[in-house]
């Protein structure tokens, strides 16, 4: 039919468009990266669906992306022969934002262009970045497998609404026509656009084609022929050898796979041989994504089998406590038709996963040993997540424990490793002492620390939400038990000298009448009342039973309604 339907953008899209146009004008060229990235994803999706249905290739099996510039019409056209979109998919994908963490993102916006530009960089702009340079965008698409007549035409000026209508589209895939805004004519320049493509998209594994240069015109401009040629190397980046890949290429590839705008912090790239043969290229982001704590998050590590994209999975390829890792794993041995169900059962994937976990931990160890600044950044962004690993990954518990960093009575910053702590232990000290609290200030001012301060013994200050869980699972380090200073009868072992013991006895004697009175008054509210020498400034403190819940955990559970 020729009926055109006009629909409104989701409110968040309108906000995003506004924000983008205002805050990204200084980095306009990224629209090319985003649209090429989408075209490449569309090729991956087609390849995957075609494993089961080869007829989806129709008569056009060579996947590619094309960019055409039209100086007269002032348009840039990006087309691909990937999976394409049906009408419903176009409405859904080009009219809403499906990302998890969207709410959190919009909640953080301040209205200040500079700050928001920074945030939007982390959030990612995707398809809508077309409107940075275009005042009109027309998308024509046909999903692979649908008849020619079931193409869709989507058009918008990037304000409140878009239109959709049916079109006939003989070629499968998606074509996006950008009508450039006045002043953005540099994107009609062949040389300029080729430069941008090389800069951002050289890692894309299928050819990105543009018309071949054919000498220069009167004004020194490039004259193009009608023949297309690839502008990029067109081989999957991870299949190249390390020596051939520049840091810039690794970085751009990261931005593509991770859908992130910020630079990665570090990466590990290796070809692994043995029981399973695979290549891994895994990245640590430099910033936590908005959805790090969302259950529904979809992003993770991508699984390829012999260069064919199979799936993106958040659990089967990386354990939960390494959910911030991004990148690809490309297996030589898994079957191409591997499904999610097969993966659930697969011992092979377990082997690959275990190998990749070791690589990531190795990368972290390397950073912590050689690049303290980067490790500090990592710890700030992801340390709390890594702590989950102590209870989650029994086989790597010790390696993870070594990577932990803490605030202590000697350092407000979470910068002290357990090895540092042990190295500074007092003569005769055989335990690692810690205290849990809601905040650093509460921890530091706890009366439980008085005796430790007096004796100059360092105490770990555990104040993150996950720390109770950590303390429950990390019961010793380097054969030294971790002991809460707020639990049970404080046993300072050899740190206690004869004078302390005598003082304790004396205190008990002296306090006997007071204690009897207190027990009387407090009755069932307490299990016991004891005299102590662990306090130097405070008259009294609450102590949890040795094997009971800590008072901090009790408060956490109460606030969670338990
Ligand atoms: P993201 O790539 O992070 O999913 P985008 O805003 O870049 O977000 O794209 C939104 C969605 O639009 C994509 O997930 C995809 O479903 C669809 N899409 C965009 N471009 C294409 C394309 N060239 N071919 C097929 N689908 C596309
Ligand atoms: Mg995208």
UniProtKB/TrEMBL annotation:
The keyword Transmembrane helix does not apply. Residues 485-512 form a coiled coil. Residues 27-184 form the Histidine kinase/HSP90-like ATPase domain. Residues 1-340 are annotated as: A. Keywords: ATP-binding, Chaperone, Coiled coil, Cytoplasm, Nucleotide-binding, Stress response. SMART domains: HATPase_c. It is found in: Cytoplasm. InterPro entries: HATPase_C_sf, HATPase_dom, Heat_shock_protein_90_CS, HSP90_C, Hsp90_fam, Hsp90_N, Ribosomal_Su5_D2-typ_SF. It comes from the Bacteria. Molecular chaperone. Has ATPase activity. HAMAP family: HSP90. Homodimer. Belongs to the heat shock protein 90 family. This is Chaperone protein HtpG.
